[in-house]
Amino acid sequence: xxxxxxxxxxxxxxxxxxxxxxxxxxxxxxxxxxxxxxxxxxxxxxxxxxxxxxxxxxxxxxxxxxxxxxxxxxxxxxxxxxxxxxxxxxxxxxxxxxxxxxxxxxxxxxxxxxxxxxxxxxxxxxxxxxxxxxxxxxxxxxxxxxxxxxxxxxxxxxxxxxxxxxxxxxxxxxxxxxxxxxxxxxxxxxxxxxxxxxxxxxxxxxxxxxxxxxxxxx
Length: 218
Prior knowledge:
Elements: H1 9-18, E1 21-25, H2 28-35, E2 41-44, E3 47-48, H3 49-61, E4 65-69, E5 73-74, H4 80-90, E6 94-97, H5 100-108, E7 112-118, H6 122-135, E8 139-143, H7 148-155, E9 163-166, H8 172-181, E10 185-188, H9 202-217
Parallel strand pairs: 1-2, 1-10, 2-4, 3-5, 4-6, 6-7, 7-8, 8-9, 9-10
């Protein structure tokens, strides 16, 4: 078991400011590829529970941070106890979940809670906003990524948690545009983007740093 490492909303923002691309991985080979990039925050997006300890340890050995998606690991639930188990047993730095209760439990344990919200119409956006208010997460992962820029100002007005865009983001141009629109990070399984963070465009880096500064002033 790895130690529980206390994180804060400001810390997750700083990590994303330095490296806004978040590799989403679910196999040994994709994790190995992600660990060879400059990305610091790794999303363990699914797999077998028996693999989780080794994966989290590998990320920590490289100086990175592990986000575990509760609902995508066989044998894990999505409730508060599942969140506590992942944090205390495996030393995860944070969780990704659609459950406000799981998010709050992880944060009470000093780790990050990333609330996953899928927006496909006005009703789902309003429901997602209500969940965000209830959970008060460290960040919100908003899907699908390519529409996040269109709904960002309505979904997350000033004072809201930072937003991570996820889903269908494949190119550096798409990533740079979303960062310029104000998202704090890009969660993607597209390996071609993982190294892009090393040479991320000035527009992307400047926008992400501006987001950190703006939230810090709130």
